[in-house]
Amino acid sequence: MDEFEIQYHIENRYENQVRKANFQLLVVPESNREQKVSELKFATSGDYQIHFSKNIFGFKTIQYFVDTPFTEFKFSLSAKIEKAEFNPYSLSPWSSFAEYEEIRSLDFRIDNAIFLSATDLTRFPIGGEFEFPGYSENIRVFDFLLELNSYIFKLLIYTPESTNINTRIEEVLEFKKGVCQDYAHLFISLCRKNKIPARYVSGYLNQGADFIGSSQLHAWVEALVPGLGWVGFDSTNNLLADHHYLKIAHGTDYRDCSPIIGVLESTGVQRSIHSVTVTNQ
Amino acid sequence: MKQYSSGILDSYTLENSHYDEIYAGSKQPRDHYTSMVERFNQLSLSDFERINNEVKTAFLNQGITFAVYAEDKKPDERIFPFDLFPRIIPNKEWIQLETGVIQRNKAINLFLHDIYHKKKILKDKVVPADLIFSSKNYLKEMVDFTPEGKIYTHISGTDLIKHTDGQYYILEDNLRCPSGVSYVLSNRVALKKSLFDLFDKLKTKAIYHYPEHLLEMLKSVKPKNIDNPTIVVVTPGMYNSAYFEHSFLAQKMGVQLVEGRDLFVEKDFVYMKTIYGPIKVDVIYRRVDDEFIDPLCFRKDSMLGVAGLMNAYRAGNVTLANAPGTGVADDKAVYHYVPDIIKYYLNEEPILNNVQTYHCENESEGKYVLENIDKLVVKPVDESGGYGITIGNRLTKAEIEEVKVRIKSNPRKYIAQPIMSLSVHATFIEESKEFEPRHIDLRTFCLMGKNEDFVLKGGLTRVALKKGNLIVNSSQGGGSKDTWVLD
């Protein structure tokens, strides 16, 4: 059992006064089989009432409805998380042929349709040239995903601020640069292209271990391996998601997992600073 | 031998290639039209024009208008053209229509619940799974969520036509809060004044109580534990083409007409701002499209919606009519499967006919379409209002090639149907000052609540005013007629 302490901080400054705002934050780590949130504290720049809601996938969101004018919105979260160690390299008891049959079956495709359909951010470009071999009945799904993970890791160069949250796969492939959500979107895109269900995961990553992308919220992917369940792959670091990965939420792509969405009554530009620290206790 | 010596219908010329609603073959009116034809033939042209002008002025004074949109142009505000000669439907025929419409909408509701939950119909291969999951109107936000009373399509508008064979065919299903009912109610008010004696004599079925039924239906789907629900109509605003209807319905139901900015969500409850402070809202008849209703959930740039509405909805604290995500079922590619959907859920034969539909995505059907475009109507699956429709026998060679390119580039987007011959109805044409045959269809209005399924007796008979035109939508220059269902 490992214990982690998380600090998440966001500061939004607005050029002009904001008259009214709705904020929705998706930053609280989930409690699941391997991780337990033992302490949770919040602070905001104003005396705003906190409200918890659930998003469409059942993950806990924080809502603030602000109807007093402001030019600055600050939010911080601190949490303690207990995380069980586990071996992500557990193999599916199924043969590659059985896996293949399952993946091709209609019921499987219907039950996982949401994580098989391309979204704007995960659509693989038509006619896009790509030499990575497709999934076939002779490869175990897990092995295919491992290869895909290291392929993307080698293909892209991690380049902060080279892309934004609306960057499409076309662009990532063209410039071969990106940040964690681009690695994740490309991974998802190729899984779905090969009919393997895949979902975008947002979360915190233990910084003590010196991973890429750990000073901000991190993104990785969970893919569905028949006979095994959802397995986390982090192609930004060419790793499997183990106990250093503290999950917040999953969805079809980044847009289901945005850490903060604000709907504001205001004009002008805003500047935003996020920071994350994760320490192993 | 002339039957009516000086009637204004004398010069009416029959077109034998179409089903004429009034006349069967010769100039002998069908039984249910006899008294109406007699009544109109008693009028002189100047009498008729006087009445016609009175009615038009009445519409203008009531502000019964709609806006037409075209690219790069300012919207054009028009009076909805209205024809004085009502379309008449005998009761026996109506009962078949009514039961058919209810049957269809019941099945569609069960279908929507299924594809957002267990997806049995897809697993049983009755409807292709890819067809549903590739639809942009299939909303993940609705998956595993059950709206109050399992009702999705509280308000629907099924469009029907009558073909040369005298049979009704379903043209399309409109499940995203269809417009038009306000015209039906206003048409009736105007016409009843001018033709009251006949209206009474023929024992025409009343329609004035539609807003009461609408209100009752909305009350019936209130969230649990609410006794006296607060109901509102949400409009995109006065620049919307159906704004007249939104305000009309709100006023007739005695509920508030609001815009998104008049509402807010706090702690998963929806409130309306009033001068007395916030009032909690329980049921929303929304006339704003899915993608604009909640900027937190759907389009972030939407100025028409309410931030947090979907959270409140999914928490069960407010009912939306219609439910989001119903558009997946009125997709014109799904239309093709509605007869199978009816059989699957209700174990009944469909009462109303579907028009034969070719699905361009299907290889052999797509091939047939490309080879026979001149004989087919090609429609985009996800548009409404008659936009993007091409009618094969009206196209030049170059236009046919253009349509082919469009279909090939995105076959999922197009379906094709044989060119159906819409029935014609005598309609007064201002330019010729004569009655001439014009194509018509019928939009029905169906309400589904917890306590009753209701179809407005009659509906909106839409008229294609341009000679020979088959597209009746008001945005494409169509007009309307009052529709009388007899006792």
Identify the notable features of this structure and list them briefly.
heterodimer; A: 281 residues; alpha+beta; Immunoglobulin-like; C8orf32 fold; 2 domains; 4-stranded antiparallel sheet; globular; B: 487 residues; Dna Ligase, domain 1; 4-stranded parallel sheet; disordered N terminus
Structure characterization notes:
The complex is a heterodimer of chains A (281) and B (487). Chain A has helices at 96-104, 106-111, 141-155, 169-175, 180-193, and strands spanning 2-18, 20-25, 35-44, 50-54, 60-66, 70-83, 157-158, 177-178, 198-205, 218-225, 229-234, 239-240, 245-251, 260-265, 270-280. In chain A, strand 10 (218-225) and strand 11 (229-234) form a beta hairpin. By secondary structure, chain A is an alpha+beta fold. Chain B has helices at 34-41, 45-62, 91-115, 120-123, 129-133, 181-194, 196-201, 210-220, 243-253, 309-314, 327-330, 332-335, 338-346, 363-371, 397-409; strands at residues 65-68, 76-79, 82-89, 155-162, 168-174, 231-234, 256-258, 263-266, 269-272, 279-281, 283-286, 319-321, 353-354, 358-359, 376-380, 390-391, 414-418, 424-429, 434-443, 446-448, 453-455, 460-464, 478-485. In chain B, strand 20 and strand 21 (453-455) form a beta hairpin. The A-B interface holds A 20, 22, 24, 49, 51, 53-56, 61, 63, 65, 67, 106-107, 109-111, 113-114, 116-117, 252, 261, 263 and B 119, 122-123, 125, 129, 132-134, 140-141, 143, 264-268, 295-297, 300, 307-308, 310-311, 314-315.
Give a topology summary.
The complex is a heterodimer of chains A (281) and B (487).
Chain A: E1 2-18, E2 20-25, E3 35-44, E4 50-54, E5 60-66, E6 70-83, H1 96-104, H2 106-111, H3 141-155, E7 157-158, H4 169-175, E8 177-178, H5 180-193, E9 198-205, E10 218-225, E11 229-234, E12 239-240, E13 245-251, E14 260-265, E15 270-280
Parallel strand pairs in A: 7-8
Antiparallel strand pairs in A: 1-6, 1-15, 2-5, 2-14, 3-6, 4-5, 9-10, 9-13, 10-11, 11-12
Chain B: H1 34-41, H2 45-62, E1 65-68, E2 76-79, E3 82-89, H3 91-115, H4 120-123, H5 129-133, E4 155-162, E5 168-174, H6 181-194, H7 196-201, H8 210-220, E6 231-234, H9 243-253, E7 256-258, E8 263-266, E9 269-272, E10 279-281, E11 283-286, H10 309-314, E12 319-321, H11 327-330, H12 332-335, H13 338-346, E13 353-354, E14 358-359, H14 363-371, E15 376-380, E16 390-391, H15 397-409, E17 414-418, E18 424-429, E19 434-443, E20 446-448, E21 453-455, E22 460-464, E23 478-485
Parallel strand pairs in B: 3-23, 5-13, 6-7, 6-11, 11-12
Antiparallel strand pairs in B: 1-2, 4-5, 4-19, 4-20, 8-9, 9-10, 14-17, 15-16, 15-17, 18-19, 19-22, 20-21, 22-23
Helix pairs in contact in B: 2-6, 3-13
